[in-house]
Write a structure and sequence with these properties.
- There is one protein chain.
- The protein contains 17 helices and 4 strands.
- The protein is mostly helical and about 475 residues long.
- The chain folds into 2 domains: about 10-190 and about 240-415, Na+/H+ antiporter like domain (Na+/H+ antiporter like fold), CATH 1.20.1530; about 425-460.
- A hairpin with an 8-residue loop joins strand 2 and strand 3 (about 75).
Amino acid sequence: MTAPAPRTRHKFLGRLSLPERNFVAEALRTETVGGVLLLVAAVAALIWANTAGGSYEAVRGFHLGPGSLGLDLSLQHWAADGLLAVFFFVAGIELKREMVAGDLRDPKAAALPVVAALCGMAVPALVYVLTNVMGGGSPAGWAVPTATDIAFALAVLAVIGTSLPSALRAFLLTLAVVDDLFAILIIAVFFTSDLNFAALGGAFLGLALFWLLLRKRVRGWYLYVPLGLVIWGLMYNSGVHATIAGVAMGLMLRCHREDESEPHSPGEHIEHRVRPLSAGLAVPLFALFSAGVSVSGGAMGDVFTQPETLGVVLGLVVGKAVGIFGGTWLATRFTRAELNDDLAWPDVFAVASLAGIGFTVSLLIGELAFTGDPLLTDEIKAAVLAGSLIAAVLSGILLKLRNAKYRRLWEDEERDEDLDGIPDVYELGNPDYHLRMAAIHEKKAAEHRRLAEVAGGESEDGNGPA
C-alpha cells in the first residue's frame, strides 16, 4: 500500500503570479497618487479650519440640491454620502475581483487575509470598548478604529520611500479590501436610521434593473450613470447609508474574462476608468470637508484624556497592529501556511501597524456614531488624525529598519535585463529567455573586449593611459 503523498504547504507572502502582480502594481500606483492628494487635502482642511474656521464652516455647511427629492444637503454631506459612494463602488469591484480572480477565490489562500482582517477589526473594537468601560465613556464609537485607509497607507509608503515587495503590498491591499467589506456591513447594520420602505423598495428595483442590463450585455454609460444616480438617491432617502448603493452596483459587475479574446473583464475596465476619479477627486474632497478640526494644544491634550478619543487612538495604534499580527500568526499556526523564507514576522508586524492608518472610513463612521454631538464628533476626528499619524510614524520606523532587505527583494522582482517587459524572475524556466540572456551577455562581453583592445592600442601608441 503506497503512502499518501504529503500535502504541500501554502507559502504565505510568496511571489505573486505575473497577472496578479501587474494588477496589484497598477492598482497601488493609482492609490498612491490618490493617497498623496488625500494627505494634501487633509493638511489643507486642518490649516483652513484652524486659521479661518468661520469660512471653513460656512463653506462645508453650504446647502444645495433638490429639496423636493430629499436631497437638499450640505457640501459636507454631499462629500460623505455622495462622493464616498464612488469610493465604495470601486471597493465593491475590488472585492468582486478578489473573489473571482484574486487571492480570495481560493478558500485556503483567502483564510489568512480574511482572518487577519477580522482580527484587525475585532481587537481595535475591543480595545475601544474596554477603554470606555474603564473610563466611563460612550461605547457608541466602537467601530471608529476598525477601518484601514489603503490610500493613506500607500501615501505614507510613498513619502518614506520604502520599496515593499509586491507580496507585502498585495497583503496590505487584500486586507484593506476585506476591511472595506466589513466596514460596509457595519455601516449598513449599525448605522441605518428609520427605514423608508417605499424608497428602499425603489432602490432594490433599480438594482434589479441594473443587474438585468448587465446580464443582457447592454452597453452605454448614458444608461448606467443616470440609473446609478437614481439608485443612490433612493438609497439615501430609504435611511440606509447611501454608500451601500455604490457597493451593491460594484459587486454586480462581471470581473472575469469569458474567453481569451476579451483583454479585460467589464469590471476591470470600469475600475480602471473610475479608480482615478475615486482616488484623485472623491476621497480628497471628502477629506477636505471632513478633516477640518481644531488642533489646538488643549484639544489635542483632550484626545489622550477622554475615554472616547483615547479608545480611538489606542484602537488604531495598538488594536490594529496586535489584531492583524495575531490573527495572521494564528492562521499560519493552525493551517498549512508557512511564511516566505525571504521575510520574517517583524515584516508582518510592520505592515500590521501600517494598517492602523484609518482615515476615510474612520472619519465617516465617527460622524455616524456621534451625529447628535458635534463637539464630540470633532474630538473623535482629531483622535482619528492623531492615531493615524502615530501609526504612520511607527510603521515608517519599522519599515525603514528593513528597507535594505525590501529594496533587494524589490529589485530582484523588477529586474528585466532582456527588456521584454516581463521581470526575469517570471521567465527562469523559459528556454527562449535563457537564449536571449546568453546573447545579451555575449554582446556585453564582446563590447568589453573591444573597449579593452581600444584602451590597449592607445597605450601602445602613447596617446592614451597605460
